[in-house]
Amino acid sequence: MPTAAMTIPGAHSAVPVPRAVTPRADGRIDLVGLDRAQLSAALAEGGFAEKQVRLRTKQLWHWIYHRGLTDFAAMTDIAKGDRALLESRFVIGRPNVTEALVSIDGTRKWLLRTDDGHEFEMVFIPDADRGTLCVSSQVGCTLNCTFCHTGTMKLVRNLTSGEITGQIMLARDALGEWPKPGEDLTGEARMLTNIVMMGMGEPLYNFDNVAGALGVVMDEAGLALSKRRITLSTSGVVPMMARCGAELGVNLAVSLHAVNKETRDEIVPLNRKYGIEQLLAACAAYPGASNARRITFEYVMLKGINDSDDDARTLVRLLKMHDLPAKVNLIPFNPWPGSAYECSDPARIKSFSKIVFDAGISAPVRTPRGQDIMAACGQLKTASEKKSRAERDREAALESAA
Ligand code: SAH
Ligand code: SF4
Description:
By secondary structure, this protein is an alpha/beta fold. The chain is 35% helix and 16% strand. It folds into 2 domains: 28-91, DNA polymerase, domain 1 (Orthogonal Bundle); 96-389, Aldolase class I (TIM Barrel, Alpha-Beta Barrel). The strands form 4 sheets. A 9-stranded mixed β-sheet has the order 5-6-7-8-11-12-13-14-15, covered by helices on one side. Helix 4 runs parallel beside helix 5, helix 5 packs parallel to helix 6 (238-248) and helix 6 (238-248) runs parallel beside helix 8. 41% of the residues are buried. The protein binds S-adenosyl-L-homocysteine and iron/sulfur cluster.
């Protein structure tokens, strides 16, 4: 079994990445996540005549990304022989579903699996005026923020562009949101209106694959989600932020979580590499940030760690000093088994929020969603691993009894 792992060279990452496409047991190639040029190259390699490649690329793009087909046989404007050739060489895949859960509040959560057996999560959060899909960029995360469950996972691998794009396609399948022939199902009519790169992993440590996936997702002839409806959340990979703004133009969220070096060094260890000042300067320079498109600062409320009135005042001072078009999201800490923190008391969170709000910066407190289905990041994956460990123990016990 090929492990397909290699190391990204360069200063800002040492994460094992798979090849561009994860190898499948049946040897066929998954077309999902390829951009137009890669799709054309795959077709040429797969035996399509050069003069046909352009038209077939255009047709496939429409069927795959606009209509959501997974079956080549249903692509009626492609000659039958060519459909058979496609079928023999390629698939239009989706991540494998290990578990799919629906919360009493409508939140949905999926535990997904790559073709080479790595598990990762995806969450859909419906609200009155929007539906947000929380997408993962990596299996696990190398950054080890102390309050984050994903950061405790040992195994880390980048998701491919196809595995990232596949999450959005799978969500459209599950929500029944592919347009039927002649139907004009555009942005507003859909449940899935927004995407946040806030699932497992650090998206700016997997920039090329995230950029590839978001390129496909934003393409107007395909999934056609506007960059204004996509938010990328980073814990502060400063050297990649300018490229993110220039090349993707998506909204930026920054996991700030603390306002002094000592605390942020501890809870977001990446701070030791890129400090608060450097991070806020990169935010101020973020292309496209304006009062109409403010940068979101995420702030997890940890009892006795980062939640004092002084912290709130320092936060205001920092944001004003850098003249940042900012909003602050206060996130109640979501505890997980073995976590070293508690969530701040509601009164403390309220007081913190009021100080920021009174200074003219919006600071809503996020309501936890889907708690009955462990919708907070990393929790479902761990529960599944526990289950399989228990299953393994049971099997071992049965074997030894036999
Ligand atoms: N790696 C990126 C994106 C994924 S994490 C980042 O750190 O920004 C998405 C958000 O969830 C981050 O703001 C993260 O700090 C927050 N988060 C992680 N664990 C949490 C927990 N246990 N409770 C509340 N928020 C958490
Ligand atoms: Fe990684 Fe984000 Fe979790 Fe930190 S908060 S460990 S960067 S996923």
